[in-house]
């Protein structure tokens, strides 16, 4: 379970490490951050929307000291418009697409074609530092669907006053000595039907939920190619994600089946950093494109520091099959990145 959770949850890190040398984007100098942000944006947003899913399968809270263990998988679907991003010349100072392309695939594109990007950076003596690199294509051809997956294991526990506390916890895990990952989340769900007297006897249940999740991933960037124009020393990619959600939940709870739905709001923020020292090598050319002197080497440190956000309203509808203490459930959430959730639960009291 440990290995599969890491692979599914942090698929982005593994896909990049297997086939792409994303650090070559650093040759783009001051344009590197903008290009990296446009490329990663749908994966970062998809993860944040996905992390806010699967907190409940009913509006009914446990009796005091009741508990449940829930295993579920969320998948946030990337809109078609987010699979590509426009390459607008005025957004970049030093970049050019030699084949005349006007758009590039994002990491969540079905188009896995690499695109050559040319770099030309003016120098004080009138010459130019020049280089080129291959911008990576999308990775979704390697996924079952074009969606960002996030599996979860969750514990719910009944407190007094018809309130449940929920915990998501994955202690720091290491994978192949390259990746460290951890996740922690807390939620509180409070029953509102207790304040409506006789209505409490109906199969209808209404509650409110507030939940927060934090996920941290670090990935060691290795210098796998001695022939490219970027040398890596102590390279590391770091992702820190914080999400929260506030939802009003209603459910009809019968013996065999539960129907549930909710309205709410999501918010998420992510920082993505590329740390370490990177030595970049450029050729030198004159204004006519002729070689002009020896190549130039320069070292930069901690070159990438990006922020991503995802927020907006959400609406969920779902159903749960109740087989004694064993539950099977599935739901679908309408939001910017629509999200499907499914799983099983063992619930007592």
Could you give the distance between the termini? 27 Å
Order of helices and strands: HHHEEEEEEEEEEEEEEEE
CATH-defined fold name: Lipocalin
Number of strands: 16
Mean pLDDT: 87
Counting structural domains, the number is: 1
What does the radius of gyration come to? 24 Å
**Share of helix, binned:** 10-25%
Write down the overall geometry.
elongated
Shape-level CATH architecture: Beta Barrel
Task: Give me the side-by-side strand order of the main sheet.
Answer: 1-7-8-9-10-11-12-14-15-16
Structural class: mainly beta
CATH top-level class:
Mainly Beta
Low-confidence stretches: 1-10, 12-20
The biggest sheet, with number of strands, parallel, antiparallel or mixed sense and barrel status, is:
10 strands, antiparallel, barrel
Helical segment count: 3
Strand content: over 45%
Compile the SSE list and pairings.
Blueprint: H1 2-9, H2 11-19, H3 32-51, E1 67-77, E2 84-86, E3 95-96, E4 103-105, E5 115-122, E6 128-135, E7 147-159, E8 163-175, E9 179-191, E10 204-221, E11 230-253, E12 257-285, E13 296-301, E14 304-323, E15 326-334, E16 339-348
Antiparallel strand pairs: 1-7, 1-16, 2-4, 3-5, 5-6, 6-12, 7-8, 8-9, 9-10, 10-11, 11-12, 12-13, 12-14, 14-15, 15-16
Quick recap:
This is Outer membrane protein with beta-barrel domain. The protein has 349 residues and is mainly beta. 11% of the residues lie in helices and 54% in strands.
Feature tags:
16 strands, Lipocalin, 3 helices, disordered N terminus, mainly beta, 54% strand, ten-stranded antiparallel beta barrel, 11% helix, two-stranded antiparallel ribbon, 349 residues
């Amino acid at each position: 379970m440990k290995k599969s959770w890491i692979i599914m949850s942090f698929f982005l890190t593994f896909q990049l490490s297997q086939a792409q040398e994303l650090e070559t984007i650093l040759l783009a100098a001051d344009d590197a951050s903008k290009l990296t942000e446009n490329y990663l944006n749908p994966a970062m947003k998809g993860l944040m929307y996905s992390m806010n899913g699967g907190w409940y399968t009913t509006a009914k809270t446990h009796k005091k000291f009741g508990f449940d263990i829930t295993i579920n998988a969320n998948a946030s679907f990337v809109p078609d418009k987010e699979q590509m991003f426009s390459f607008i010349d005025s957004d970049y100072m030093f970049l050019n697409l030699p084949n005349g392309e006007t758009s590039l695939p994002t990491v969540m594109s079905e188009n896995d074609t690499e695109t050559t990007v040319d770099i030309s950076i003016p120098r004080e003596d009138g010459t130019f530092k020049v280089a080129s690199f291959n911008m990576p294509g999308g990775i979704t051809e390697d996924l079952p669907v074009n969606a960002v997956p996030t599996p979860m294991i969750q514990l719910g526990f009944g407190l007094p006053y018809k309130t449940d506390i929920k915990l998501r916890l994955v202690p720091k895990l290491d994978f192949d000595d390259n990746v460290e990952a951890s996740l922690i989340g807390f939620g509180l769900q409070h029953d509102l039907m207790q304040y409506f007297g006789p209505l409490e006897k109906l199969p209808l249940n209404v509650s409110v939920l507030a939940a927060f999740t934090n996920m941290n991933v670090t990935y060691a960037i290795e210098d796998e190619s001695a022939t490219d124009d970027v040398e890596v020393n102590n390279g590391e990619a770091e992702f820190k994600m914080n999400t929260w959600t506030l939802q009003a939940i209603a459910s009809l709870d019968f013996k065999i089946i539960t129907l549930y739905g909710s309205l709410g709001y999501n918010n998420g923020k992510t920082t993505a950093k590329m740390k370490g020292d990177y030595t970049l090598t450029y050729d030198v050319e004159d204004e006519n494109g002729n070689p002009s002197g020896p190549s130039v080497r320069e070292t930069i440190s901690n070159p990438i520091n990006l922020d991503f956000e995802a927020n907006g309203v959400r609406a969920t509808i779902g159903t749960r099959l109740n087989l004694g203490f064993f539950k099977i459930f599935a739901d679908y959430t309408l939001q910017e990145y629509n999200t499907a959730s499914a799983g099983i639960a063992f619930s007592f009291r």
